[in-house]
Each structure stands twice: as structure tokens, then as C-alpha cells.
């Protein structure tokens, strides 16, 4: 039995690169689609936000001379490309999808509203939220927090390349230890980079718990949905 009825799944754009240096690795995309289908088959209602860092990241563009607003808009469009790719991969697996965009771009996707999203999920489609919040200066983490709160998700699942939250970056510090469970207050006081500050505070204020887990290990998404103790649980 699935532990959660409705989830917001946040996927990193960088993870979509898989073995590549840039863009979308079709193998990784297919693995993600199969994992999402597994939990969809359990009757879980799924909303997804995917980053765009495999194509373009607004902040790094700004550091190279791009106007920050235009850079962020380019990043939003990168998330739309990833969303269409994921939508296509899910349709191949026989899962219905609806791509909703935070800025108008019909016929690429429908303009987002909470009620369209919930109706799609209740009718068995996976709702994919693209173009972030539609505003510059907000990350896709903040977009995920916002959409998760709006669709009244039970939990946000943040799929990353690491298996949870550590005291330091485990890729740089071999002495870093993992948290199984941590409060938002501790995340903030320790300055841990789980998500950006705005996203973390939104989840804290609206009581949306997060599970940070390794999405790149096939089968982990289903384990999280079934309530297995993997990753790190963040809560009030």
C-alpha cells in the first residue's frame, strides 16, 4: 500500500544528463519514466517539477554576462524542454500526462492553474509543471514548494544524486554523516543546502514535509512511496 496519496516529485535537470555532458540522456529519462509508472500503478496522484540545469541555468548565465531576468527566462524554457521529454517518455510507458506551463505557451502546454492540475491528477494523468513559477529570481526548488503547497500534496519527494542530507557535501568530505530525520529549523540553523532558503521557508511555513533521496538508483522511488526508511525526512 502506498503511504502517500498525492505527491510532488522534484527532479533535477542535471540528473537527466545521465552519462552525457549536456542535454538529455534517453536511457536515464526512460528509467525515470519506468519508476514513475510503478508508483502511478499504485494509484498515487503525481505532480512533477523538473529543473533545467542540464540545458541552461539562469544564475550561471548571469555570472557570464547575461541579463539576470533573461537568463532566468532561458532557464524556464529549459525546464519546458525537459518536461516535454519526460511527458513523451511517460506516454511511451502508457501513462497519461498533462504539461502545464507557468507562462502562456499554448499549444506546447496548458497555462497552469491549481484546479486544472488537481483535475488532471484525479483523472489519472501525471501533471508536469514547467517554467518554474513564471518569475525570475525564483529557482525550480521554490517552484516545487509552491506547486506542492498549491496542489495540497502530502509530501515533496526531492530526487537527487545523493541518498539524503549530510552534515557536509559527501562528495567532498568523507567524514560527512547522513541525517535520517531532520527538522526545518535545524536545516536552517546549520545552513544546509537542501534547497534554497525561500523554498525551505515555504515548506516550513506551510507544513509540507520533504524526503530527499537518491532517484538515480532504480526502484528507490517505489521504496519511498511504500514508506521504506531511505533518504532523509525533513519536517517541522
Structure write-up:
With 236 residues, this protein is α/β, with parallel strands linked by helices. 37% of the residues lie in helices and 19% in strands. The chain is globular. The strands form 2 sheets. Strands 4-3-5-2-1-6-10-11-9 form a 9-stranded mixed beta sheet, sandwiched between helices. Strands 7-8 form a two-stranded antiparallel ribbon.
Radius of gyration: 17 Å
Q: Can you tell me the residue ranges where pLDDT is under 50 for at least 5 consecutive residues?
A: none
- Tell me the total number of β-strands: 11
Distance between the first and last residues' Cα = 25 Å
Name the descriptors.
236 residues; alpha/beta; 9-stranded mixed sheet; two-stranded antiparallel sheet; 11 strands
Helix and strand arrangement:
Blueprint: E1 6-11, H1 26-40, E2 45-50, H2 58-63, H3 68-92, E3 97-101, E4 110-111, H4 114-122, E5 126-130, H5 140-150, E6 155-160, E7 165-166, E8 178-179, E9 181-183, H6 184-190, H7 197-205, E10 210-214, H8 220-225, E11 232-235
Parallel strand pairs: 1-2, 1-6, 2-5, 3-4, 3-5, 6-10, 9-11
Antiparallel strand pairs: 7-8, 10-11
Short description:
The chain has eight helices and eleven strands. It has helices at residues 26-40, 58-63, 68-92, 114-122, 140-150, 184-190, 197-205, 220-225; strands spanning 6-11, 45-50, 97-101, 110-111, 126-130, 155-160, 165-166, 178-179, 181-183, 210-214, 232-235. The strands form two sheets. The protein has a nine-stranded mixed β-sheet with strand order 4-3-5-2-1-6-10-11-9, sandwiched between helices. It has a two-stranded antiparallel sheet with strand order 7-8.
